[in-house]
């Protein structure tokens, strides 16, 4: 199912790893000063820690009893240390800031475990705990195969997910045969059926499937590089600084438990293989000096100007292009490219005008409302209002390619 491509925990190819040092924050005095007030009512039950989570996102979260997922179990462990129970606010998540805005930032929950730890994720609106994990892409193959770097893929058939960093990365290599798959599940199946030699796919799901469906048959080698590996943390709304500091305070003592949870769910947490870098020396600035440019990385760094204003309110009959850009970059960009910059013509939305001329608008509405599920384009009518989609349309109009050819 195409939805598995756009889970909240998956990052677009433009994701950049960050310097972890920035994430280490000192515990603020306020936490200590608040302590007496809190302990005054210590015998009364503290309110549950409310976690926002996707009910169908294993290995990370699920509402299946007995199989809560890695991130929910981490959340439970944190809550327990804080002397609190947990409650859940289930939210069917599509990748993106919209989810965070409608849950965490709308005070539907206190924390979200597993947000990508990037400084500009949602500007100052979201604050983070110390890093809890690394997520990214991995090479999956037979246990006896040497997988120490990209050159070990030479001459092999490699499954890559559609529009993922690995696909972009390997596009530059004529000596590696790419087989495009739509999901990590499909990549594992192709590997198991002998249709490919290696799957270069999203690591958490690969690890989870390897453990639950393939009897740990495969080796899984995490990769590192621009858009291949990033840190995740627990996210809070800006106003929850005291809670964040409390959580940071208990995280170090939870490390063994957290490591055991990674193993339980088969999610790789090991030392990655460095990719796309000439010298394997610079460990501190992952991706910063990448010689291999991953198509979309630079445009993604442009700030989204409207990040905090509620663009929806400004929508008029013609739509608000700035608000539309925010929706686009938060959700559609995952497949269509940040700011609609996309090298693959079939999904280059800057060509809509050229392609459809007077039918551009009707094609937009039909495609976006109903999707083209068989082709990997989801339906959005239950996700965004028509006002929001009108804004997206206004934004797309502003980026149409009007040049020749
Ligand atoms: C999971 C990947 C994915 C996401 C996310 C996605 N799309 Fe698409 N979209 C596709 C694919 C793949 C196609 C091409 C389908 C085909 O081959 O006909 C497509 C096609 C389209 C088209 C028609 C293009 C054409 O030339 O016919 C429009 C318009 C479009 N998408 C808009 C959007 C908008 C707006 C969003 C965000 C709300 C979005 N898409 C999110 C994958 C995606």
What features would you describe in this structure?
The protein has helices at residues 29-40, 70-81, 97-102, 165-170, 184-192, 203-212, 241-265, 297-300, 321-336, 352-356, 360-370, 386-398, and strands at residues 49-53, 56-57, 61-62, 86-90, 112-116, 126-142, 157-161, 177-181, 198-202, 218-224, 229-237, 273-274. By secondary structure, it is α/β, with parallel strands linked by helices. It folds into 3 domains: 2-135 and 229-274, Periplasmic binding protein-like II (D-Maltodextrin-Binding Protein, domain 2, 3-Layer(aba) Sandwich), CATH 3.40.190; 137-224, D-Maltodextrin-Binding Protein, domain 2 (3-Layer(aba) Sandwich); 302-398, Cytochrome c-like domain (Cytochrome Bc1 Complex, Chain D, domain 2), CATH 1.10.760. α2 packs across α7. Bound molecules: heme C. Heme C (HEC) binds next to α9, α10 and α11. InterPro entries: Cyt_c-like_dom (IPR009056), Cyt_c-like_dom_sf (IPR036909), Solute-binding_3/MltF_N (IPR001638). Pfam families: Cytochrome_CBB3.
CATH fold description of the largest domain? D-Maltodextrin-Binding Protein, domain 2
Helix content: 25-40%
User: Which structural class matches the secondary elements?
Assistant: alpha/beta
Give the SSE order as H and E letters: HEEEHEHEEEHEHEHEEHEHHHHH
Give the amount of beta strand, in percent.
Answer: 15-25%
What is the approximate shape?
Answer: globular
Overall average residue pLDDT: 76
CATH class assignment of the largest domain: Alpha Beta
Total DSSP helices:
12
Residue runs with pLDDT of under 50 for 5 or more positions: 1-43, 277-315
Bound compounds, each kind once, are:
heme C
User: Quick one: CATH superfamily of the largest domain?
Assistant: Periplasmic binding protein-like II
Domains, number = 3
Which CATH architecture of the largest domain would you pick? 3-Layer(aba) Sandwich
Q: Span between N and C termini?
A: 35 Å
Quick one: biggest sheet?
A: 8 strands, mixed
Rg (C-alpha, Å): 22 Å
């Amino acid at each position: 199912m195409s939805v598995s491509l756009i889970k909240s925990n998956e990052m677009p190819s433009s994701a950049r790893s960050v310097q972890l040092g920035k994430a280490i924050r000192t515990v603020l005095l306020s936490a200590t000063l608040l302590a007496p007030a809190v302990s005054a009512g210590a015998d009364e039950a503290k309110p549950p820690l409310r976690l926002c989570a996707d009910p169908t996102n294993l290995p990370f979260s699920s509402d299946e009893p007995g199989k809560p997922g890695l991130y929910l179990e981490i959340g439970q462990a944190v809550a327990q240390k804080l002397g609190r129970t947990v409650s859940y606010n289930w939210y069917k998540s599509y990748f993106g800031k919209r989810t965070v805005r409608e849950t965490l930032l709308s005070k539907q929950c206190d924390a979200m475990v597993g947000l990508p730890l990037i400084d500009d994720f949602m500007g100052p609106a979201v604050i983070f705990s110390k890093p809890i994990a690394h997520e990214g892409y991995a090479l999956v193959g037979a246990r006896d195969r040497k997988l120490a770097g990209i050159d070990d893929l030479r001459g092999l058939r490699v499954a890559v997910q559609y529009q993922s960093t690995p696909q972009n990365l390997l596009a530059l290599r004529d000596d590696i045969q790419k087989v495009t798959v739509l999901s990590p599940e499909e990549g594992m199946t192709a590997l198991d059926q002998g249709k490919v030699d290696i799957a270069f796919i999203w690591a958490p799901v690969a690890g989870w499937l390897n453990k639950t469906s393939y009897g740990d048959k495969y080796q899984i080698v995490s990769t590192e590089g621009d858009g291949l590996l990033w840190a995740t943390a627990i996210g809070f709304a800006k106003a929850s600084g005291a809670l964040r500091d409390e959580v940071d305070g208990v995280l170090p003592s939870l490390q063994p438990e957290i490591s055991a949870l990674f193993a339980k769910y088969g999610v790789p947490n090991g030392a990655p293989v460095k990719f796309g870098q000439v010298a394997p020396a610079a460990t501190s600035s992952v991706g910063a000096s990448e010689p291999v440019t991953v198509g979309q990385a630079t445009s993604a760094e442009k700030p989204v100007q409207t990040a905090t204003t509620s663009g929806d309110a400004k929508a008029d009959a013609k739509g608000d292009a700035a608000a539309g850009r925010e929706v686009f970059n938060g959700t559609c960009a995952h497949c269509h490219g940040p700011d609609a910059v996309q090298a693959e013509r079939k999904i280059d939305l800057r060509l809509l005008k050229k392609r459809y001329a007077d039918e551009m608008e009707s094609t937009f509405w039909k495609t976006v409302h109903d999707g083209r599920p068989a082709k990997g384009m989801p339906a959005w009518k239950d996700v965004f209002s028509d006002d929001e989609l009108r804004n997206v349309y206004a934004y797309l109009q502003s980026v149409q390619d009007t040049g020749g050819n």
